[in-house]
Amino acid sequence: MKRDIQLFKHKINVEVRFSDLDAMRHVNNARYLTYIEEARIAYFNDVLNRERSSLKYSAIVAKIEIDYLQPINLGDKVEVFTRVSRLGNKSSDVENLIMIERDGNKYAAASALTKLVAYDYKQLQSIPIPEDLRFMIEEFEK
Hints:
Distance between the termini: 18 Å
Number of domains: 1
CATH topology: Thiol Ester Dehydrase, Chain A
Shape: globular
CATH architecture: Roll
Strand content: 35-45%
Order of helices and strands: EHEEEEEH
Radius of gyration: 16 Å
Largest sheet: 6 strands, antiparallel
């Protein structure tokens, strides 16, 4: 996973909610999954020109790895950056970088790698990544 923010062209802002906090008063580790999920959905909606309310995806999550680097606290400004770093025949790698701004400084709070597999939910099997989607993602990531 690359942590160079210059590699990422897509960003969303996430508001830390009080309900995101755990007993230690920082964002619970499970909430990071929610943040990267929101960013992944926004990325594909934006890159594939879909409506914000669209949840139409022909992919399934196969694996997620998260490196926790800094705790996120209530009041931190959170940005989640997303990019597709690899497109295979049936699978792709989606990288996320979660940045926080605290006291005027930016820090990497976490980095994540999600392996997606193109999937036909009717046939219940993996499929090649559709060429039109591949083209749109490659064009965006140039």
